[in-house]
């Protein structure tokens, strides 16, 4: 069993990737050879330290796009393939069978049930969402890796425990931590409490050989300074969530009605997320500089600098 207790996603990745490269057991799954740890328990003590500060491993655009795809409740592959083209490999007739969105925010809106349960009974042990279903084993291309999400409200703090049957340590783990801790913070704001810790339990935690060199290069960067993401505003975030989902769609589709930098400024937290989304399709250095200079919180500037640097390298 691998036990990891760290304060940031970068620190978690340092421990996990180093362990898999040095002590992982060899396996030959269908997606390619890999090093595996059977049984892993990860505690992220600061769930807002959910984004890597590494130039090499900062997935802010794909992570934000995936989180918003979940929130939209759709299983259509187009919106997520815009940020993560690999999803196209898992689609069947334009849809992703194992998509989390319909399971969390679809017609049943299971997250709303969790919020109601926590409001009704603070010490509930039943605020659980089942993501994986037995019938998923017959899916053609994509089986959910997440089995359950359990929300625990204790002593005024909201903890989240995610259980995974399988987890890609280099590509999947950072995205899962981002999306699930963002959902954790949404629920905390709805219930009127602060976020506690994030717990991540994995049956098969693995590193594919195809990512081993990249993982080693990340480790060579050393330890990064802890920098938490800005806190979500107090109160029910439903209005901000609806707005940012709509903004993402307009920007992604190139809709003329999509907001520009000049349209932003009323809601700092959500506006900064919109600025990140505006930076994704931006190809000019001057445009990226204008976006970088417009953020309400300097937390995001490093990611725009990284994107600018990549275009200069190309």
TrEMBL record:
Biological processes annotated in GO: dTMP biosynthetic process; methylation
A cellular-component GO term for this protein: cytosol
Keyword Methyltransferase: yes
InterPro entries: Thymidate_synth/dCMP_Mease (IPR045097), Thymidate_synth/dCMP_Mease_dom (IPR023451), Thymidate_synth/dCMP_Mease_sf (IPR036926), Thymidylate_synthase (IPR000398)
TM regions (residue ranges): none
Domain Thymidylate synthase/dCMP hydroxymethylase residue range list: 56-219
UniProt keyword terms in alphabetical order: Methyltransferase, Transferase
Record Pfam families: Thymidylat_synt
GO molecular function, one term: thymidylate synthase activity
Enzyme Commission number, as recorded: 2.1.1.45
Superkingdom assignment: Bacteria
The name this protein goes by in its record: thymidylate synthase
Annotated source species: Microbacterium mangrovi
